[in-house]
Amino acid sequence: MHRSHTEHTVQSTPGDAATLAEVAALRPAGGPWQLSGPVGEPVVLPEALVEVLTVAAAGLADGGAVTLSRHEQTVTTQEAADLLGVSRPTLVRLLDAGVLPFDQPARHRRLLLRDVLAFQASRHHDDRPA
Questions:
Q1: pTM over 0.70
Q2: pLDDT in the model for residue 3
Q3: Which single residue of 35, 44, 60, 120 could bond 12 by disulfide (Cβ 3.0 to 4.6 Å)?
Q4: 8 burial via Cβ count (<10 Å: 0-12, 13-18, 19+)
């Protein structure tokens, strides 16, 4: 099974440079950032999103394009087996049966951590008495 990462590229317009430079310069000030929602309710932004915004603003202010790329955290078959409390051969049988999705970019299989955790949660849910 092949998994691709998601990318999105944006380019600023010449009229945006001053505003983008202003946003990029706000970063050293610190403190929480907020956005106002559609009806004015404030939403406090997580630190990771503030970093993305300021780095993107700096890149766009210089006239460049910025590409955001989403990367999933992957685990090896041994790490997945350890998380699930099963042997690696048992995990490989689950992979071969199509129970868990995986990617095999080269010789070794990789699993998305979120897929392993979702499978683990579904197993625990199924194990609960009715």
A1: no
A2: 45
A3: 60
A4: exposed
* Residues 36/77, Cβ–Cβ less than 8 Å: no
What six digits make up the tokens of 102? 């995986």
Q: Which residue has the tokens 């995990």?
A: 91
Range of the domain at 88: 74-127
Amino acid at site 76:
T
Separation of alpha carbons 85 and 58, rounded Å: 46
Size (the chain), residues: 130
CA–CA distance, 20 with 14 (Å, rounded to integer): 10
118 inside domain:
yes
Question: Same structural domain for residues 63 and 82?
Answer: no
Is the same domain home to 33 and 81?
no
